[in-house]
Structure formats: structure tokens, C-alpha cells
Amino acid sequence: MNRTAEKVLSIISAVFTVIGVILSFITMAFLNYIKSDPAVRSEIEAELLTDPAFKPGDMEIVFGIFDALGGFMWLIIIALIISLILTIVGIVSIWNNKNPKLAGTMFIIGGLLAGILSLTSILLYIAGILCFTKKPPLQDKTIYTDDQQEGTMRPL
């Protein structure tokens, strides 16, 4: 059976996941740069203190948010890497129509880890559903039985 649609959708989603992992690492590097460089930190503090509604005590809240985003970005990176691994397992199991049920399960779980409503997850959901719903075409097989009365074989 031809599983071209599932292969294409899963490969596209794997490419998008790799792009997402790379962008997440770039975001982590940017957040670490903001937190660690005193010149950038003082520049942000000076810019925020020009706002009259902003209080000096709120500065720690802003940099606390940067710290929380750093931890959250690690969670996103780990989830994306697991999603990429599951997608690759699904691609390998769908190749040559080896195990479409396993591939469908891997695609759906990988879609959940890639983000509930991201483009990557939607592509993986579609590929997973296609793995479960595509059935091989029926083949007409003539079944013969041994007729005890005439001694000949005839089709059923």
C-alpha cells in the first residue's frame, strides 16, 4: 500500500520540529545573554525606569520572569526533542508499510508533545489518523474446496 501522504506529512513535521529546536536554543542563548551581561541589564533597567508607571521594585519581577522563561524554554526543548524522536520512529515504522499502527501512535503522541495546536502537531495528527484509517485494498482470492461427491475442486 502506498503511504506517501503519511511519509510527506511526517517528514515536513520533523523538519519543522528541528527548526523549532534550533529557534528554542537561540532564544535560550538570548535570555542567558540578557541575564548575565550587566551592560544589557542596566540598559533594560534604564529603559524601563523611564516609564512613570514602572516602580523600581518591579525590576526584580521582570528579571524573575526572564529566569522563569529560561526554565520553561528547557521544558519546551525537551518536549520538542522527544517529539522529534517519536516522529523519526514513526517514519521508520511507516516506511515500506511495516507497522502503520505503531507509526500512527507515535505520530499522535509526537504531535501532543510538539504543541497542541501548532502546525507541526496538526501535520502529525493528520499523518497519524491516515495511518489508522487507510486500509489495504481488498484482493479477490478464489477459494477452492474439495467436493466429496464429484472429486473435483470448484470455486466457492
From TrEMBL:
Annotated transmembrane regions: 12-34, 72-95, 107-130
Keyword Transmembrane helix: yes
UniProt KW Transmembrane helix keyword: yes
Domain DUF4064: 2-116
Keywords: Membrane, Transmembrane, Transmembrane helix
Protein name, entry field: DUF4064 domain-containing protein
Organism of derivation: Filibacter tadaridae
